[in-house]
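> forwarded from #structure-qc
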């Protein structure tokens, strides 16, 4: 049975991630290890581990018989009072051939750890501070930052986030690139295009969902081809930011977003900055929230639990359903 989610922000002290292939005679300790501790464990990583509830997944997953030599990932989450050790055997094959929700949850966090390591290496290895990338656009979503203070909220419309499947600083994989609205007006980003460009590693991962931003030198290598399939998820050309603002959003369950909405132009994962104390506005907390700007009739939509905004002295404000109903009341079910 899964444990209740707990706030990791002040508990997780160290992450150790070993990975490689495992043959007869290899010891786990022989595999290369990456370590994050203290401030290196960013809010982005905290959030990923909490969202996937990895503290409840202590154990061994996958199947050693699925491939040889065995691909092995070992993740240790070390806090003051416990160490959780997660081992996945033949992760790539299991993801491809088995419907295993726990391995998918672990994979999403391992992917972000790889991404975090690649980003810090890119930041330290390029003299311009920028890293070059290229690849196919998997999805385009709006890049919107949310500020909360008790029951008040405001949005900052910054541009778009591109999920790219390609090569970043010579490393193959998927990665998120932040771009401005002017770049979208010029290039009209949509899934299926092939692009190249250069971007800088994000300095404060609490304030961006992308790992790279300050993007320049964008080139369209190939335009998207073929018909856009009917949604959901809805693909094609995303609208301008004013259209998102006008439409308004409803909260979207984080798990639904991860499972069904990452490729939809109406999905959005927002970095959220919360002011806890009006009298001490520098006291902030950060997290990520997921939202849907799409048709209210979308069959994939699930709201998830109501969200609480913390306030000083342990108080909180609960954002109830009427807030979303009011914000999208001007739209019909299929708009
Ligand atoms: S729930 Fe919203 S974001 Fe998800 S597929 Fe439907 S319209 Fe897109």
């Amino acid at each position: 049975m899964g444990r209740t989610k707990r706030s990791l922000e002040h508990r997780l002290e160290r992450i150790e991630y070993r990975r490689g292939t495992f043959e007869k005679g290899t010891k786990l300790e022989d595999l290369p290890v990456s370590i994050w501790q203290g401030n290196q464990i960013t809010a982005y990583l905290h959030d990923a581990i909490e969202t996937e509830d990895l503290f409840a997944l202590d154990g061994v997953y996958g199947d050693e018989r699925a491939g040889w030599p065995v691909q092995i990932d070992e993740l240790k989450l070390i806090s003051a009072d416990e160490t959780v050790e997660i081992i996945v055997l033949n992760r790539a094959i299991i993801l491809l051939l088995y419907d295993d929700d726990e391995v998918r949850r672990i994979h999403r966090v391992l992917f972000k750890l790889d991404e975090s390591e690649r980003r810090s290496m890119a930041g330290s290895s390029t003299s311009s501070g920028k890293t070059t990338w290229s690849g196919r656009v998997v999805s385009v979503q709006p890049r919107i930052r949310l500020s909360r203070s008790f029951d008040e909220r405001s949005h900052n419309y910054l541009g778009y986030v591109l999920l790219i499947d390609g090569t970043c600083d010579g490393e193959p994989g998927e990665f998120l690139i932040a771009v401005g609205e002017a770049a979208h007006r010029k290039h009209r980003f949509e899934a299926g295009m092939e692009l190249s460009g250069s971007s800088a590693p994000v300095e404060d991962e609490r304030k961006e969902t992308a790992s790279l931003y300050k993007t320049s030198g964008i080139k369209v290598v190939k335009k998207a081809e073929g018909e856009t399939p009917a949604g959901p998820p809805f693909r094609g050309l995303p609208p301008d930011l004013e259209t998102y603002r006008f439409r308004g959003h409803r909260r979207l369950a984080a798990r639904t977003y991860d499972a069904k909405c990452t490729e939809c132009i109406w999905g959005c994962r927002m970095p959220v900055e919360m002011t806890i104390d009006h009298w001490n506005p520098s006291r902030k907390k950060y997290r990520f929230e997921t939202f849907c700007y799409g048709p209210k009739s979308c069959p994939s939509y699930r709201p998830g639990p109501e969200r609480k905004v913390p306030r000083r002295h342990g108080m909180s404000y609960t954002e109830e359903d009427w807030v979303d109903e009011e914000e999208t009341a001007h739209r019909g079910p299929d708009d």
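QC bot note: Helices lie at 43-51, 91-97, 101-125, 181-187, 241-247, 254-261, 321-327. The CA atoms of residues 46 and 124 lie 23 Å apart.
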